[in-house]
Amino acid sequence: MLSAAQAPLRRYFALTALVLAALLGWYWHESRPIDLPSSPLADPRLQCVSYAPYYRDGYTPFKKDLKLTREEIATDLRSLAAVTRCVRTYSVDQGLDRVPEVARELGLTVLLGAWIGRDDDKNRHELERALEVANANADVVTMLIVGNEVLLRREQSPEAMGRWLEEARARSRVPVTYADVWEFWLRHRSALEPHVDRATIHILPYWEDRPQPIEAAIDHLVRIRTLARTLLTKPVVIGETGWPSAGRQREGAIPSRVNQARYVREFLALAERHGWQYNFIEAVDQPWKRWLEGTVGGHWGMLDTSLVPKFPLTGPIAERESFWPVLLWAGAGAALLLLMAAPRTASGRDHAWHALAGAVLGLIAMWQWEHARLAYRDAVEWSVLGAIGLASILVAARLAVAPRLPARSVALALRLLLFCAAVASVWLVVDGRYRDFPTALYLPLALFAWRRAWEVSAEERLWAWILFAFGLYRWLEEPGNGQALLWGLTAMTFARAIHAAHRRTTAAAKPIAQQ
């Protein structure tokens, strides 16, 4: 039989094998090409995409001294000219007023944006410059967009926004519009519609108050556009639509490369058939948006930050290019844990257990690394979250090899990691809209903390209860969200392992106390 001191119980061994099979199965599924409808466009270029130059390191719209050079804009638009016939801008500040003249040279048209915010002095300067640029480049600028989601941000009243629009319309040589999410456009249509030539609405199924799964996303867009066309008298333009390629799942809406390609292709088929005017958000991934919207905010681009298209418009699409890295990570994890356990290995069953546990930890380490590259925003997050992930892997490996060794450093690390997990679980409930689920960081502990065999403190029991309760609540808030489910199971399993360890140590102490 398996020794309780040296190897896992049969059912624990089987459960870990099941986890490994699930991880391998998931990564295998992600490596398989998915057949999707191909784009119907005779010209493979999209009608229009949102352009922002802030994919570069250190570039953000909040950097007051940033001034784009003509060469930087030309580099960007040359790359975009291969995938689109038009670009939409959101401001004429920071050198973006040069976009129309560069676009002309490349055969592109422009939806020129004038940024409207709280500060009316800045608004005045922005509008004056936007009108000057639009009127001087009326052969390239097909529409002047005065304000973007201003009402959504509550930075102007509908009446004040109407006055800005009316002034722009009176002075502009090109059609004038205002852009906002569809609910705000329809809610305030009486204050906006008399002052525009077209109504520009944003329809983003992922960001809806009731997020739409990819299977229902296009039907949802059609319903909203039909509603807008019914209620509005001016021509309707879809000013923003799209799907993210990575980030936090919202209920049934899953960001992924395959889902992004599916949404774009299905939308293009409808837009081509019905002759819609549209603009995709966005041209290039915007890492700076991760500070505002979490990981998902930085991954809406048709191109990645190397200006390479993330997917073609025809043919099958796979989430990951190859399955071989998965096997390499699993194999490396198994080999390293076998080496770590070599001095204590007593039987072939021990070898099998250590190889199994190591393969699982190797795959979770790969998960952590891939998520870090997408999500971590600065040196602090790389240091803190990277340390948590590494410590979680190392503690789990130590428990897999020698669960009953009373190493003080391991006990301290496990206590700190439990505290971090409890804090993360609270934040996901208090402020979870833009936060990723930290499942990869704490799953190793959920799997291997059951083998812990030392005394549990009162503080640890409290943190475990917090982790359990908030993890359960987060899952129940989004019962159809697979990421929320996996986080809930991870949090609750980790917490239960701590309480189980407490019961074991308490039970073991009773005979001694009775003596």
Structural account:
The structure is a single chain. This protein has helices spanning about 10-30, 70-80, 100-105, 120-135, 160-170, 180-185, 190, 215-230, 255-275, 290-295, 325-340, 350-375, 380-400, 410-430, 440-450, 460-475, 480-515; strands at about 50, 85-90, 110-115, 140-150, 175-180, 200, 235-240, 280. It is an alpha/beta fold and about 525 residues long. The chain has an eight-stranded parallel beta sheet with strand order 1-2-3-4-5-6-7-8. α13 packs parallel to α15. The longest helix has about 35 residues, at about 480-515. The model is unreliable at about 1-10 (pLDDT under 50).
Summarize this structure as a short list of keywords or feature phrases.
single chain; 515 residues; alpha/beta; 8-stranded parallel beta sheet; 17 helices
Could you outline the blueprint of secondary structure elements for this entry?
Layout: H1 10-31, E1 49-50, H2 70-80, E2 86-88, H3 99-106, E3 109-114, H4 120-136, E4 141-148, H5 158-171, E5 176-181, H6 182-187, H7 189-192, E6 198-202, H8 214-231, E7 236-241, H9 257-274, E8 278-280, H10 290-293, H11 324-341, H12 348-375, H13 379-401, H14 408-430, H15 439-448, H16 458-477, H17 482-514
Parallel strand pairs: 1-2, 2-3, 3-4, 4-5, 5-6, 6-7, 7-8
Helix pairs in contact: 1-12, 2-3, 11-12, 12-13, 12-15, 13-14, 13-15, 14-16, 15-17, 16-17
Quick overview:
The protein is 54% helix and 8% strand. It has 515 residues and is of the alpha/beta class.
In terms of per-residue confidence, which ranges show pLDDT below 50 for 5 or more consecutive residues?
A: 1-8
General shape: elongated
Summarize the biggest pleated sheet. Answer: 8 strands, parallel
Query: Which structural class do you get from the secondary structure elements?
Result: alpha/beta
Strand share of the residues?
A: 5-15%
The sequence of SSEs as H and E is HEHEHEHEHEHHEHEHEHHHHHHHH
| Assembly context of the chains | single chain
- The count of strands amounts to 8
Summarize model confidence as the mean pLDDT. 92
Q: Order of strands side by side in the largest beta sheet?
A: 1-2-3-4-5-6-7-8
The N- and C-terminal alpha carbons lie at a distance of 31 Å
* Relative helix content: 40-55%
Radius of gyration: 27 Å
Query: Count of DSSP helices?
Result: 17
